[in-house]
C-alpha cells in the first residue's frame, strides 16, 4: 500500500496554510517525489522516507518567503501523524524523515544518504522560483549529473505561471 494515502493528502490539504498550487504546494511536492524516487534508484536511499519527505517538508510553511522554522514544524507534524497512525513509518524511518525535514532549508551537504537524497530532490526543483540548480549545492553524485539537473529543471519550469 502506498505511504501517501488519500486520507493523508486530505489531512495535509486541510493543514496547509498557503496556496495549494503555489510555489511550496502540492505540484512542488509531487515533483520532489519524482526527483527523489528517481535519485533513490541510484543512491540507495530509502524510498519510503523520500516519499514522506516530499509530501511533508513544506506542509507547515506559513509564508512563501522566509520561514526558517518550517522544517522544524514539519518534523513535529510528521511525528504527530505517525503517532496517530496517519503516516505509516517505522521508528528508524521516522528518525531519518525528521532529520531531513529539520535540516532541509539550512544548506546542509553532509548527512545520511537518504537525508541527502531528500535534500537534493527538493533543491532540484528550484526552477519553479527562477533558480537553476547548481551542482555545488547538491549532495549526491547522481543529482549533480548535468542531464539529471536539466531534466528536473525543465520539469520545474513547466509548472511556472
Ligand atoms: Fe522548505
Ligand atoms: Fe521544498
- Which parts are unreliable, with pLDDT below 50 for 5 consecutive residues or more? none
User: Number of folding domains?
Assistant: 1
Structural class: mainly alpha
Helix content: 55-70%
Strand content is: under 5%
Major beta sheet summary: none
**Which CATH first-tier class would you pick?**
Mainly Alpha
Q: Per the principal axes of the C-alpha atoms, what is the gross shape?
A: globular
CATH architecture: Orthogonal Bundle
* Ligands and ions found: fe (ii) ion
Helix-strand pattern, N to C? HHHHHHHH
CATH topology: Hypothetical protein af1432
In summary, what is this structure?
The chain is mostly helical. It has helices at 6-15, 26-43, 47-56, 70-83, 91-103, 113-123, 141-144, 146-158. The protein binds fe (ii) ion (2 copies).
Description:
By secondary structure, the chain is mainly α. The chain has a single domain, classed as Orthogonal Bundle (Hypothetical protein af1432). Helices cover 58% and strands 0% of the residues. The protein has 8 helices and no strands. Helix 2 packs across helix 6 and helix 5 packs across helix 6. The radius of gyration is 14 Å and the shape is globular. The model has no long low-confidence stretch (mean pLDDT 96). The site of one fe (ii) ion (FE2) has 5 residues, from loops.
